[in-house]
Amino acid sequence: MQYGALSTLTQPQGRATCGVDSEVPVGIGVEFAGPVTGTIELVNAASTILARGRLHVIAMLPCDRCLEKRPVELDIVVNEECRLAQVDQPTVEGAEDAEPIPILDADTVDLSELVRQVIAVNIPPRSLCRPDCRGLCPHCGQNRNEGSCSCDEEQVDERWAGLRSLLDQ
Ligand SMILES: [Zn+2]
Ligand SMILES: [Zn+2]
């Protein structure tokens, strides 16, 4: 994700528009369906480089209840401070970092760390495949959206057995 915009960005007030259409940078910890696309405009604001724009990507996220993966579209507004410094080894911990994001790889502008951090913080922490997802059976692991298992029947049987013994008394 490299751009030859460095000579422009080192100028005061220099700006560059970067079209994004690339593989999602590694290190986010979830799967993606297809590339990340969008546009990021970089502006030299004296002490930092401001990055503004939008990114679009489809994450394959597991449901919190049934663990089934399904595509979740992320439409991300980018508004970050960056600095013309070397991108080091990417780490997921960097996502919480309030430091301006480095965007330099040798002598080219490299937006991969910016894009990685912006996507990482925009992954929804909890989500369901549908509001009424029935989840997994805690006994046998059956996905209850796809059908019920015999564990349910046994539990019902036990309850009826208890009720029956009460009635018998
Ligand atoms: Zn689910
Ligand atoms: Zn079961």
Structural overview:
This protein has 169 residues and is α+β, with helices and mostly antiparallel strands. 20% of the residues lie in helices and 37% in strands. It has 3 helices and 8 strands; from the N terminus they run βαβββββββαα. Strands 1, 2, 3, 4, 5, 6, 7 and 8 form an 8-stranded mixed beta sheet that branches. 20% of the residues are buried. The mean pLDDT is 87. It binds zinc ion (2 copies). One zinc ion binds at residues 137, 139-140, 142, 149, 151.
Uncertain runs with pLDDT below 50, 5 residues or more?
none
Q: Estimate nothing, just give the exact number of structural domains.
A: 2
Please tally the helical runs, counting DSSP H or I stretches of 4 or more residues: 3
CA gyration radius, whole angstroms: 24 Å
The percentage of residues in β strands lies in 35-45%
- What gap, in angstroms, lies between the N and C termini? 76 Å
Secondary-structure element string:
EHEEEEEEEHH
How do the strands and helices of this protein lay out in sequence?
Blueprint: E1 2-3, H1 6-9, E2 15-22, E3 31-32, E4 36-45, E5 48-62, E6 69-86, E7 101-105, E8 108-110, H2 112-121, H3 150-168
Parallel strand pairs: 6-7
Antiparallel strand pairs: 1-8, 2-4, 3-5, 4-5, 5-6, 7-8
The structure holds zinc ion (2 copies).
Summarize it:
The chain has helices at residues 6-9, 112-121, 150-168, and strands at 2-3, 15-22, 31-32, 36-45, 48-62, 69-86, 101-105, 108-110. The protein is of the alpha+beta class and 169 residues long.
